[in-house]
Amino acid sequence: MTDLLIPGLVVFTLLYGLIRGVDLYDAMICGIRDGLGVCLRIFPAVLIMLVAVTMLRASGAIDLLAAFLAPVLRAVGFPPDCLPLALLRPFSGSGALSVGSDIIRASGPDSYAGRVAAVMLGSSETSFYTIAVYSAALGLKNTRYALPAALCADLAAFLSSALAVRLFFG
Fold first, then answer.
1. Fewest CB atoms within 10 A around its CB: which of 6, 84, 107, 126?
2. Alpha-carbon span 27 to 18, nearest angstrom
3. Residue 10 lies in a domain
4. Is residue 77 assigned to a domain?
């Protein structure tokens, strides 16, 4: 069934367009032109985010901050091994996935830190990246409350991940 879903959707869209009398070729060209325009508008924001994340990881700043905050996190039940993941996740999905796989490899998939890392990856968002992309696509210069709200949501997701793993796995 799932193998037929995408081809079926394409055929349905083509038939619907033909029945409605839409010039399908022209509509496709306009859609591609608009899509390329969006890509060009968001490219600078995406490039800046990728460079910044790479610089933070390469400089060791994330590891230094993780070592500094580890005692506070132990007090609230958050595994210090997952702190680099929590610091990187709002910036980069691929970087967070790399750090998460390192945590799981080092601690083990059934360890507390490994489980928290897995839940964190599935329950949080790359907030800075998402806000940068949508702001660039919409031409927004002021995100107002979007960033503080997104970071609060990320913090809630990280702490809830640790709590959920503790509740469900002991």
1. 6
2. 12
3. no
4. yes
Q: For the chain, what is the mean pLDDT?
A: 89
Total domains in the fold of the chain: 1
Q: Is residue 4 part of a domain?
A: no
- Domain span at residue 80? 41-169
Cβ-in-10-Å burial (0-12, 13-18, 19+) of 28 comes to exposed
In a domain, 13, yes or no: no
Please give the model's pTM, rounded to 2 decimal places.
Answer: 0.69
Residues 82-106 as b or e (16 or more Cβ within 10 Å = b): bbbbbbbbbbbbebbeebbeebbee
pLDDT in tens, 28-83: 999 999 989 888 888 887 788 778 877 887 898 878 888 888 899 888 889 988 98
